[in-house]
């Protein structure tokens, strides 16, 4: 109520005819003897029923987001406590209520469900670990290139780098499927420099284990010792540590290639916001290019760098389309991600309770990352605000 | 007397020109020429990395199946053929399980309706959140911010549950209605409407215009740049939408370019590799958004950077 009063008074000051209310009146509503309603009526007279209009204007949003976003989340929360195969009505009481069993099967109980879930987490974690730094570095590099004032055809380059970001993920995945076939374009290119490329989409071997195997540190065929004897969530330490599979690497390359353009634009906007005086002053000091980058440009980009890193962190945990087209989990479950596992346990294995439970764990993970992002970015904003 | 004035004018103009030129000029001197050659080579190489996949895609669409399999990298078809395109458009024996024209018309229909709905509903909600005073407004805006944080892929099964419960699973309604409003669009519109000076609305109000009248004939025409950005982003989003259609439909008659192509490519069907056909279909499905992109690139840039203002 007090909020509304102050607002309407504010707008009255902005020019609406004001018939009541003495000048010099204190700004706190209700502080004087005049009843607030009497004061409010006059400025509001010109906009009778604005509250009703407001609700009318937002009603499509409220209805659609309510029915297709809030309600689904609540329904899925209920279904994640059921054992439901998608046939009967899950709200009619025919489906078994199993409590937290679905979550227990995923997190604590030894079994196939947990092994699959742990595998998907491992795959996605490697995907995040490689994709986020690579796409951030590449985007920064591209932005620095396109921002070079001496460079010809900067506009054309910017268009080229950005274009993959706006195309359909399905269409682009189709192209990559063709490029990375066993006898495809990428392997032909590699053969020019004498490298025999792997059979990308059929290769479940972990990249880290391959490297360690080549160095003779572990034997990928028969891991021994602590790596094989210890396990966590149903996967041996060796499986946790063997790295993304070769097949997963193609999806990582695809993600880096498609998303770097968007992040390049964010970096570019920030680069163009760096005050020219700052760079000129540095140039007068006689810095060289590397020093300019190190001591002027990069520090100025820090908030944006953080934004790009967290945006990447949030989006990489949601990888789905590319997995659907390029692997569907194969080979050997090494391209399985939590999002795809949730989908396939519901739609392929008719275990919607399990699928919902996975969706909720993923939702919680991503919301935590979002809260972290908003919190840290706000901290930064306040700190720079105080400095000024 | 006049002579000195003109020289001064000229001098002033010269310094102005110099200033303008120096703003465009780099701060540091040019690279030495070997470094410049190396730099250009590197830049061209990186540019090729971004262009080659599309070039290969374009060329492969005009190859025969054996040619595409044996010479995946060549940029000249050995025996150029439009067979893939003819099959897609049903001019020759139509491709098995690839009702391309149906996919195309579904995609176009859904994208147009969703875009129209989003432009209207997002700007209405954005205007209300920016300007109209009503109880619960700040709560609703908090709700919009929260919704933007909810990841779409965590909602696959939840969305199916709701559509199934309402009995609209596997219909156009299920494909379209949930997409009619999007929180990011509302956010963009709210930001824009907040930048419109209030005086304009106040003036219209004094002239006796009602709330809807002010919105429709005063504020909305002023919002053209924001509306174009929203239109383009909505079209791109709904044209490229995949996961929602995947869980909202199951029968072939509702397949769009994304769901149809994904099923075809991910090996749901046999039919060998058929890469020319697949790549041609993928290329055609990219074309409308690509055309929009090359005509209205700066609006895409606005959209990409609105991610940065989201906070």
Structure description:
The complex is a heterodimer of chains A (388) and B (311). Chain A is an all-alpha fold and 388 residues long. Chain A has helices spanning 2-13, 36-44, 50-79, 101-107, 112-146, 154-166, 169-179, 185-192, 207-214, 226-229, 237-241, 246-273, 276-284, 289-316, 321-326, 338-347, 352-387; strands spanning 82-83, 96-97, 231-232, 235-236. Chain A folds into two domains: 50-105, no CATH class; 110-206 and 243-387, MetI-like fold. Chain A is built from 17 helices and four strands. Chain A is globular. The model of chain A is unreliable at 1-46 and 382-388 (pLDDT under 50). Chain B has helices at residues 2-24, 33-60, 65-70, 83-88, 100-130, 137-149, 156-165, 172-176, 183-195, 198-206, 211-222, 224-240, 243-248, 257-265, 275-295, 297-309. In chain B, helix 14 (257-265) packs antiparallel against helix 15. The N and C termini of chain B lie far apart (59 Å). Chain B is 71% helix and 0% strand. The radius of gyration of chain B is 27 Å and the shape is flat. By secondary structure, chain B is mainly α. Classes of the chains: A mainly alpha (388), B mainly alpha (311). At the A-B interface, helix 1, helix 3, helix 6, helix 7 and helix 8 of A face helix 2, helix 3, helix 5, helix 6 and helix 7 of B.
- H/E order of the elements of chain B? HHHHHHHHHHHHHHHH
The number of distinct β-strands of chain B equals 0
Quick one: CATH class of the largest domain in chain B? Answer: Mainly Alpha
Helix content of chain B: over 70%
Cα-based radius of gyration of chain A, to the nearest Å: 28 Å
Please state the second-level CATH architecture of the largest domain in chain B.
Orthogonal Bundle
CATH superfamily of the largest domain in chain B: MetI-like
Number of domains of chain A: 2
Shape of chain A: globular
SS element count, helices of chain A: 17
Report the uncertain regions of chain A. Answer: 1-46, 382-388
Number of strands of chain A: 4
Low-confidence stretches of chain B: none
Largest binding interface between chains: A-B, 114 and 103 residues
Keywords (chain B): Cell membrane, Membrane, Transmembrane, Transmembrane helix, Transport
Protein name (chain B): Carbohydrate ABC transporter permease
Region (Disordered) (chain B): 1-21
Transmembrane segments (chain B): 37-56, 108-130, 139-160, 172-193, 214-235, 279-301
